[in-house]
């Protein structure tokens, strides 16, 4: 059995969630328990090559980490992620007309594929999307005739000879500059942004509307979905997430607070209020309770890399849908079913409204999502095995394999198990990301970022 | 997940339990209704949704504010209590001074430290 496991681990990206032995690699952020609100991590995203890892926080700041080039001598681990750039993306605003505070919290970051030396990403708060250019400067011009090296102007009468300024190498400087600001298009709070596979357009979704933008054009945006009822008293559901299909530039999906997903085709009409497909799992009406709708609300939707499947996350489970089948998901994984008997207290402390995200690994064979107590879960779609791991500084020796965790739902608690009542519901892992090609994952606790890698022998 | 045999046993157990008692979700619902009898008179949807859509709203009416200022010049000003986050209604009209200052983060992220 052990031999089979280690052979599978050799094929990068092909290993299952349980065949991989996850090891702690790095942790970023402050150690102290007193968390400033601004430091709460609100989004995590790898870029297309996996070389860069971006985080956004409640204070409107973006921090980008870069993976070190692999050292030929360091064959026992992949490159570490070190700070590459950090900048203030959004600032708090006050809309005086509506008496609305506009939080600077970064809701989502999405990277553009790299076209030239610079890197581009979109970051958004509740109201405004910004396109940021991150570029490197490693040379500077020296030898001006009219300026000293420190910038002071020379007295022209003291210039007796002329020279040609030349570029000389300098210490690497990484600069971030906002290239486009896409504002004033959303009445409600933006929850998603998604770049189209045409790499020219992107969508932004708020609670009731979805807009289509061109990356070059900031003064115009097309509304493609509008579910606002004529009479707000009739409002029954809101949009919770939206994403473009990874390959078909005309297709996108959006999820709702009622647990449905609608797939829309932009070729059908300019306004995609009528869906092309409606994905919904039928519910047994006898099982319906006060909590049913709340826990069915989808907090995240992600297409597989192949584009054949999509994954949705609701409060208690992760579901995989085949785009060819609308009437039910093809796979359902229980994240923390033991919480079903705690829904009353989870409603009282508002945890029932927590929005967990989910992600695929590069080969679409394993999916991952977060839970409470700084636990996160992985489900291997092929072997049907799952694992629960913990993001904690207690396990922070590099290359030590993480120990699987187990929650005891009821009855006798075995050794090393943790009971449901001992779970810390303030320690939630809402945001996780998986490297597009390798078995490297980024897991965000409240204010710390953990990086785990599979064990490389 | 746990090994095959114990799981099968607990599935049977649970089915038995369900036949005798209501599902855990319904039990939780009963608990909630006992604590908050007026909850859920309307379908759960609209209340949550409207609250969600109104997130961040602070009520400030400049007309009311100026009238109150004029009125208060004649009366004794009640000492401003520490601004709390609950919705303010009634005589105490939120003033620009009461709204918590929104300053951008001047400090760099600790992740970059």
UniProtKB/TrEMBL annotation, chain A:
GO terms for cellular component: protein phosphatase type 2A complex. Residues 1-17 form the signal peptide. GO terms for molecular function: protein phosphatase regulator activity. Keywords: Repeat, Signal, WD repeat. Transmembrane segments: none annotated. SUPFAM superfamilies: WD40 repeat-like. PROSITE patterns: PR55_1, PR55_2. Belongs to the phosphatase 2A regulatory subunit B family. This is Serine/threonine-protein phosphatase 2A 55 kDa regulatory subunit B. The gene is PPP2R2A.
From TrEMBL, chain B:
Residues 12-32 have a biased composition (Basic and acidic residues). Keywords: Cell cycle, Cell division, Cytoplasm, Mitosis, Phosphoprotein, Protein phosphatase inhibitor. Coiled coil: none annotated. GO terms for biological process: cell division; G2/M transition of mitotic cell cycle; positive regulation of gluconeogenesis. GO terms for cellular component: cytoplasm. Its main location: cytoplasm. Transmembrane segments: none annotated. It is found in: Cytoplasm. The keyword Plastid does not apply. Residues 1-49, 73-113 are annotated as: Disordered. Residues 1-11 have a biased composition (Low complexity). Interacts (when phosphorylated at Ser-62) with PPP2R2D. Interacts with SNCA. Interacts with PPP2R2A; the interaction is direct and this interaction inhibits PP2A activity. PANTHER family: CAMP-REGULATED PHOSPHOPROTEIN 19, ENDOSULFINE. Belongs to the endosulfine family. Protein phosphatase inhibitor that specifically inhibits protein phosphatase 2A (PP2A) during mitosis. This is cAMP-regulated phosphoprotein 19. It comes from Vombatus ursinus (Common wombat).
